[in-house]
Amino acid sequence: MADGAYDDRDGKIWLDGQLVEWRSAQVHVLTHALHYASSVFEGERAYNGKIFLSRKHSERLHFSAQCLDFAIPYTVDQIEAAKEEVLKANGFTDAYVRAVAWRGAGPDMGVSSSRNPVRLAIAAWGWGNYYGDAKMKGAKLDISRWKRPSPETIPVHAKAAGLYMICTTSKHAAEEKGCSDALFMDYRGYVAEATGANIFFVKDGEVHTPLPDCFLNGLTRQTVIDMLKAKGVTVHERHIMPEEMEGFEQCWLTGTAAEVTPVGQIGDYTFEVGTLTRSIAEDYEKLVRA
């Protein structure tokens, strides 16, 4: 598939139970999700024709929808079959896969939308390194002026569209400064995550990563923690204060899009792209292609 605007490409998208032409996969301007963020999604990667942790992603899509008080009208098995159909229809073996479910247009157009249909779409496209050459030399991160919110204010463990509003603005601000991404603190001032990836630090051969008590506990994050423990590396999941970054030697990001990406700088703090960082990145690459 050629690069270009995402609404103007050749290919097929699965929409509400059937494959449609890419350019025909459209929604009405009065779609509820467009106005009120009643939308959840998943980002997944296929390697050698197989989507990594596919079923866990489909299960989380259902969980996220429940957090936003709607039910997806397709089972996990049906979503799994649809994703395979999309890959096959577009001839992909390596691809990024996006499943998105949302409250569509219907008889309700206020905040309440219980009578509106819930819709589901699945698309796939070719996507290389999320951070470009930062995958090799280490990404540079800005520190966002926004904070990850308290679990009392929003369903923080859902992969919901509304939670990404501050991610977009933070990433734009970071890019204007020549950075690849931005790091959030949480509502208490602890280190949280990047705009679309979890974060890890290394000190004296041990790994420290923020406790995901107010942000998404990423599937890649969970995978990498298991890999580290299998290597005999001690992993501390805990609250981390920003000033602790001065004492950390290495740093990396994890996420479906980011995979395992080294970090060279966060604000005024610098990190080496060290042996453990490179080792876990290589191990992850082998695992997803196994």
List keywords for this structure.
alpha+beta, D-amino Acid Aminotransferase, Chain A, domain 1, 6-stranded antiparallel beta sheet, 7 helices, globular
Q: What's the total count of β strands?
A: 15
Whole-number total of structural domains: 2
Q: Calculate the terminal CA-CA distance, rounded to whole Å.
A: 25 Å
How much of the sequence is in beta strands? Answer: 25-35%
Task: Provide an overview of this structure.
- One of its GO terms (molecular function) is branched-chain-amino-acid transaminase activity.
- By secondary structure, the protein is an alpha+beta fold.
- It folds into two domains: 114 residues, D-amino Acid Aminotransferase, Chain A, domain 1; 155 residues, D-amino Acid Aminotransferase, Chain A, domain 2 (Alpha-Beta Barrel), CATH 3.20.10.10.
- The strands form two sheets. Strands 7, 8, 9, 10, 11, 12, 13, 14 and 15 form a nine-stranded mixed β-sheet that branches. Strands 2-1-6-5-3-4 form a six-stranded antiparallel β-sheet.
- α2 packs across α3.
- The chain is globular and about 55 Å long.
- The two termini are 25 Å apart.
- The mean pLDDT is 96.
